[in-house]
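OP here, attaching both records as promised.
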Amino acid sequence: MEAPEISTIAATTIRPWGSFTVLEEAPGYKIKRIEVKPGHRLSLQMHHHRSEHWIVVSGTARVTCNERIELVHSNQSTYVPPCASHRLENPGVIPLVIIEVQNGQYLGEDDIVRFEDDYKRVGQA
């Protein structure tokens, strides 16, 4: 059995809330390093085709997943299932750094459905 081709990207994308770097991508998964500026948050969103595991490396994350809101600290993690509305926020005063592991059949950025966004990016990707 042949091993799947792994692509190491390490390209950083800047967003109004911070940045993300794709560390590795292969069929069925993608690994990102996400940094969220203090006081900023990502859109309230969902994905049809992927789940996400978030591991906090530094800082504190306020995570919304459907109706649940929780604080996740350094060396803790949380899981976002497919089709769950979710949001990542940095309520702290230092940058929030997480590692995100996406799993699913389709991992494109256009699988984002935005419900609310501080930066006026509502709708698809």
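Record two, same layout:
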Amino acid sequence: MKTFTQSQLQAIADALGETADGLTGSEIGHLLATVKIADTVSPMTKRHRSYNAFANDQNKRGARTYIIAFIRKAMKPERFAREAERFEPMRLNLNRALAFAGLAVAASGKLGSVEATQTLSEATRRARAEGRVDYPRCILMC
């Protein structure tokens, strides 16, 4: 089974927990519970909380399946109907992180496979371009 590397998990957690454009603490708690990832709920930042929950879950299960489920639920566009301005900045940050794992979130909110990138400049370029493309290949029940 595929897993994320430590640095990929960190980048994903950083993007999702971004102070200005990321998920709120209560959103993180709700989404973790929804996808059945144990929450580490302690006095730590959103980024560290997400990273610890993701790392613990992936180490326990030996797969990234539940983390992908978290991303899929977190990036459903309808969740942002009242705060539409939050969606694209979070998607851009997340896609920059996911590019290294060969994944991307389309504007439709679907998570798809893409060719993995090796450089930050390529990840940034691709994340910016992805706003104009909807990926045909989805993974894990898109």
